[in-house]
Amino acid sequence: MARLSRRPALRSLREAARGCRACPLWKNATQTVFGAGPARARVVLVGEQPGDQEDRIGLPFVGPAGRMLDKALQQAGVERTGLYVTNAVKHFKFLLRGKRRMHQKPTGLEIAACHRWLEKELASIRPHLIVAMGATAARSVFGRTMRIEANRGHIMPPDSHSHAADVLITVHPSWLLRVPEADKADAFRGFVRDLRRVRRYVAET
Description:
Layout: H1 10-17, E1 43-47, H2 52-57, H3 64-76, E2 83-87, E3 94-97, E4 100-103, H4 108-125, E5 129-133, H5 135-142, H6 148-151, E6 155-156, E7 166-170, H7 173-178, H8 184-204
Parallel strand pairs: 1-2, 1-5, 5-7
Antiparallel strand pairs: 3-4, 6-7
């Protein structure tokens, strides 16, 4: 694996991550799915891991969860083109059922093994705000388990974690795909409400 400088350019960081063998997930995944977006984005969105379509295409949030994210960002008035979007884990973890690859939640060891890549991304970009979407992202960003519902929607200052940026916790957009139909509208509105905090933050800082 290539050695990394203290603050590498995203291009060299992405190239180095292609050869990551820090955990077994690379063996079955199609490729490393690194982050995408402006190298000096003020806001970084962090999800859990790539899904089936992301693994095949090689870009984050291009599948069903990505389309849900795009819809919510649009309603919140946030331009995705100005965001850097990545995941806590860079390889797709799945269980093969017939011809379908079913998502599996990464373990603590897998999250820890991939943590260095997220840390290097954040060190390179130096965002003002990190948006941790879901429990895995929050755990990777804070280094400990965070209750999503108890902490979501609040801007948390740097003294609550180890990063120089503020952090906002929200749900992962894939969660919106799994909630009961009767609750989907309310769940989506809540996600949009959290993302509007991002818009206000950018406008005020």
